[in-house]
Write a structure and sequence with these properties.
Blueprint: E1 2-5, H1 12-20, E2 35-38, H2 41-46, H3 48-51, E3 58-64, H4 73-87, E4 98-103, E5 110-116, E6 118-120, E7 126-128, H5 137-151, H6 168-176, H7 184-200, H8 206-215, E8 220-223, E9 227-230, E10 238-241, H9 253-266, H10 271-293, E11 306-310, E12 313-317, E13 319-323, E14 326-330, H11 352-366, H12 370-401
Helix pairs in contact: 4-5, 5-10, 11-12
Length: about 400
């Protein structure tokens, strides 16, 4: 599983229409009809009227899975709950609209999402909201890693090394071949030629790369720590950023590649470190939301659940043992109540209060007038109080079933 954020400047209308279209991005008929998992398509598009004054009206992206990665309907629901609690906020998600659509037309599960970048406040006013602000990558990567562990999926490995950085608009233009960038083709072809020379060993470091560019008749307008700009007499200068054009501490390209390979061999997913990163980044989001929107989101975001594979089945677990710096997990082997089996380890009590809250939130999302909004907000508040009381009662019931179990350390 991985989360990708698209480069989008338009409103929600075009994104929603594409997500629900019978045809894919190539114009081919989808083999599997898109399915709405959560949200209202028309309401999502209607919010363009509120966000049209913003330079960025929505965040659009996809939660993508490998061919062999599947989720049950219950897991999908929990994933979307945890996604919203993490990237929007447990309280903010009542004020920010999101829309999720399931695709299977590429042979694998993809959950596309649109989030309107506006928070609708209780007083009827609205403020700009960005669920994926600059620097969001740490939180996103931690969330993805924790979810991959929970579902028993392989962790995503970063394979890019010395890769040239293009903007989202440039990457989209390169893929489509249709654009208004005057020098993009020249830039792409020159970049490809330089990377081929590095790959063949003809150019060993950035110093030699600069010499090659100069000797081939190019004038370098500026050289920065992570970029090289080439003068263009016919238009805007071409800037090559990252990868082979960065300073890279003056190291030879092969040394950088070798170091990357060595780190990749020793890199092991660490749940403790990932959880720490997740909670640190969540605290920043909660603090920001509190100051700007006067809400008190849950600082934990959601509570990640570890899993262990048993005969190709994933079972939730809660205690762990440490061995040779690798974290391994095991199922609870003993329960205080002898009448309960392994399948009873995580009892789920039917929640009428949560169903009531879900209905109230849906009513709030579909409210069109101030009076409807006020009525729905009151229903949400009452349902929340019931959920809190029900959670407390369930906790007492769980405490009667289990006794605390101390993790074993070896």
């Amino acid at each position: 599983m991985i989360i990708k954020i698209f480069s989008t400047k338009g409103g929600a209308t075009s994104a929603v229409n594409y997500f629900l279209s019978k045809k894919d991005h190539k114009g081919n008929l989808r083999e599997v009809k898109p399915e709405i998992l959560r949200g209202d398509a028309q309401y999502t598009k209607d919010l363009d009227g509120l966000t049209k004054k913003y330079a960025h009206q929505i965040v659009s992206g996809v939660i993508s899975f490998r061919d062999n990665e599947t989720l049950t309907p219950e897991q999908k629901e929990k994933l979307l709950d945890d996604f919203e609690d993490t990237f929007i906020g447990s309280e903010m998600k009542e004020k920010v609209n999101s829309f999720f659509v399931e695709h299977y037309d590429k042979g694998n599960l993809e959950i596309h999402f649109v989030i309107n970048r506006v928070a609708i406040m209780e007083n009827g006013k609205h403020k700009h909201f960005n669920p994926f602000p600059p620097g969001h990558e740490k939180l996103k990567d931690a969330f993805v890693s924790l979810k991959n562990e929970e579902y028993g999926f392989e962790q995503i490995e970063e394979k890019a090394i010395l890769k040239t950085k293009y903007t989202g608009a440039e990457r989209k233009a390169i893929r489509s071949g249709k654009h208004n960038f005057e020098n993009l083709k020249t830039k792409f072809e020159l970049d490809k030629a330089m990377r081929e020379m590095v790959k063949s060993g003809e150019v060993k470091n950035r110093e030699e790369l600069i010499d090659i560019l100069k000797s081939s008749g190019h004038t370098l307008s500026r050289i920065g720590d992570d970029y090289i700009s080439i003068k263009n007499d016919n238009g805007r200068n071409m800037r090559f950023r990252g990868g082979i054009y960065a300073h890279n501490e003056g190291k030879d390209y092969q040394d950088i590649i070798d170091l990357f390979k060595e780190k990749s061999k020793t890199k092991i997913y660490c749940r403790k470190t990932t959880l720490q990163t997740y909670h640190e980044e969540m605290s920043k989001r909660v603090s920001f939301n509190s100051k700007r929107y006067q809400v008190e989101d849950d600082p934990l975001g959601y509570e990640p659940v570890s899993i262990v594979k048993v005969d190709n089945r994933s079972s939730p677990i809660s205690n762990q043992k440490v061995s040779d710096s690798k974290i391994e997990f095991e199922l609870h082997s003993k329960l205080t109540n002898k009448n309960h089996s392994i399948s009873d380890a995580s009892p789920v009590f039917k929640s009428s209060a949560k169903e009531r809250l879900s209905d109230a939130l849906a009513e709030l999302a579909n409210a069109r007038t101030p009076s409807e909004t006020a009525k729905a907000q009151k229903a949400v508040a009452m349902a929340k109080a019931l959920v809190e009381r029900e959670n407390a009662e369930n906790k007492l019931r769980l405490d009667r079933i289990y006794q605390p179990i101390t993790p074993k350390l070896h």
